[in-house]
Write a structure and sequence with these properties.
Blueprint lengths: L9 E4 L12 H12 L5 E4 L11 H15 L4 E5 L5 H13 L4 E5 L8 H13 L5 E5 L1 H4 L5 H10 L3 E6 L4 H10 L5 E4 L5 H7 L3 E4 L2 H16 L3 H17 L7 H9 L16 H18 L4
Parallel strand pairs: 1-2, 1-8, 2-3, 3-4, 4-5, 5-6, 6-7, 7-8
Helix pairs in contact: 1-2, 3-4, 4-6, 6-7, 9-10, 10-12, 11-12
Length: 302
C-alpha cells in the first residue's frame, strides 16, 4: 500500500531542553535532535505537548524548528505542532509552519471549546485549505475533552488529500478499526501512546509518535520492523520488555518524567516550565530503577 505521506515509523515528540532558569538551550536542542536521529527516530515533532507547547512563544517555536532542521540535515523529517482551539489561530500557525519549511504539521482537536463533529469538520477544513503541507490530525480526548469520530476523520481524509493521517492517543480499538475501514487507502494511522503501538499495529497502524523513543528509539523501531516482517514473537517480547518504561514515563504529566530520564542520562537539564513541576526524589529513584532494569532486560530479548 502506498501511503499518502510517510513520515516514518518512529516519530519522536521531542522535549524542549531548557536551562535552570527556563531559557531554551538551543545547543542541547541540536544535540538531542542528532541523538534521536542516530537512535531510531525517522522524524521529529517539534513544539508538541511533550515540547511544552502551551508555554512556548511564537519566536521560540520558529527558532526551535530552525535549529532542529539544521541539526537533522535532511536525514529526517521535521513536523511542527501547529494546532489551536481557535480556528483562526490554527490557520495562522499552519501558514507559519509552511513559511518555516516544516515537512508536515500536527493539528490537534480543539480543546476546551468542545465543538461538535460539524465544528471539527469546519475547523480542520480551514486548516487544510490554508496550506500545501501534509496535515496529521491529533486526537487526544484526555486533554481536549472531546474525540473526533471515525466518520469525521474519514470525511476529512476523503475531501482533502493533504490530510494524510492521524495520531490516535486513545485506547478505543473499536474506533481505530472503524477508521481503518472508513478512511481511504494510504491514510496513515499513528499510535499516540507508546504502550498501544503494538496493539494498534495489529489493526493497521503504521508506527508511533513516541515519547519513549527519547530513550529506546532503536528498540521501538526493532519492535515495529519485526511485527511488519512477521516476526510477531520478537515484537511481542520487545513490547513486554519496554512496557514498564512506557508506563513510568507517564507516572506524572508529560513531559516531566521523560525530562527527568533524559537528565539522568546526561542529555539535558531537568527543567519544566510552570505550571508543571519536577518529580520528587522518591519518584526519580523509582523512574531511574525502571530505566536501568529495562535496559538490563533488553539484553535478553530475542
Amino acid at each position: 500500500m502506498t501511503l499518502r505521506y510517510d513520515c516514518g515509523e518512529v516519530i519522536t515528540a521531542m522535549v524542549t531542553p531548557m536551562d535552570s532558569k527556563g531559557v531554551i538551550d538551543y545547543d542541547k536542542v541540536e544535540s538531542l535532535a542528532k541523538h534521536l536521529i542516530n537512535n531510531g527516530s525517522d522524524a521529529i515533532l517539534v513544539a508538541g505537548t511533550t515540547g511544552e507547547s502551551p508555554t512556548l512563544t511564537n519566536e521560540e517555536e520558529r527558532e526551535l524548528i530552525s535549529t532542529v532542521k539544521r541539526a537533522v540535515e535532511n536525514k529526517a523529517k521535521v513536523i511542527l505542532s501547529a494546532g489551536s482551539n481557535c480556528t483562526q489561530t490554527a490557520v495562522q500557525f499552519t501558514k507559519n509552519a509552511q513559511k518555516e519549511e516544516a515537512d508536515a504539521i500536527l493539528s490537534v482537536v480543539p480543546y476546551y471549546n468542545k465543538p461538535n463533529q460539524r465544528g471539527l469538520i469546519e475547523h480542520f477544513s480551514a486548516v487544510a485549505e490554508a496550506t500545501d503541507l501534509p496535515v496529521i490530525l491529533y486526537n487526544i480526548p484526555s486533554r481536549t475533552g472531546i474525540s473526533i469520530e471515525p466518520a469525521t476523520v474519514a470525511y476529512l481524509a476523503s475531501k482533502y488529500e493533504n490530510i494524510v493521517g492521524i495520531k490516535q492517543s486513545c485506547g478505543d480499538m473499536d474506533k481505530l478499526s472503524e477508521m481503518k475501514i472508513l478512511c481511504p487507502e494510504g491514510f496513515v494511522l499513528y499510535s499516540g501512546d507508546d504502550s498501544l503501538t503494538l496493539p494498534m499495529m495489529a489493526i493497521g497502524a503504521h508506527g508511533v509518535i513516541s515519547v519513549a523513543s527519547h530513550l529506546f528509539g532503536s528498540e521501538i523501531k526493532s519492535m515495529i520492523r519485526n511485527f511488519k516482517s512477521g516476526n510477531i514473537m520478537a515484537a511481542r517480547n520487545m513490547h513486554k520488555a519496554l512496557f514498564p518504561v512506557f508506563k513510568h514515563l507517564f507516572m506524572a504529566p508529560n513531559p516531566i518524567p521523560v525530562k527527568a530520564a533524559l537528565a539522568y542520562k546526561g542529555l539535558i537539564e531537568e527543567y519544566v516550565r510552570r505550571p508543571l513541576s519536577l518529580l520528587d526524589e522518591d519518584e526519580k529513584i523509582d523512574l531511574y530503577k525502571i530505566i536501568d532494569q529495562v535496559k538490563q532486560d533488553l539484553e535478553n530479548v530475542e
